[in-house]
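BUG: 3D viewer hangs when loading the predicted structure for this chain

Environment: internal workstation, default settings.
Expected: structure renders.
Actual: progress bar stalls at 90%.

Input used:
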Amino acid sequence: MDTWTRFGLLASLMTAGAAPAAAQAGSETSAKPAAPQSTSTAPAAGASSSALIARGDAVYHGPGNCYACHGSKGEGSVGPSLTDTEWIHSKGTLEEIEAQIIHGVPKEVAKSGIPMPPKGGATISDEDVKACAAYVHSLSQKSGS
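Structure tokens produced before the viewer hung:
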């Protein structure tokens, strides 16, 4: 991927506004039926169901746009690899991954100097964050940790 393509992807991710996220929060109480939320959470702390991981895979490769920086297989590109047991900003627990997706990594803290905006700059729901975290966690577990 050339520099201009990376810059464009990063710029578009960073300019995704927070207003849609606020609108999502308000829409949870609207009369419109919502997808069941309690059935999609992990069955136990630190463990994830295969359905939650599959949903996270869809978020990672879809509206979350995670693949744009972390690669289609989580192998790393602009952002670090998510497939090994080496975590740069945490110990790589499911809870820490979820928190990192929610809060992002500010430039001042980013060891690579490349920031990750909250939710990667996407307007995904809290349930999508949980699913994506489960998927990312599963990637690092395949490497034998």
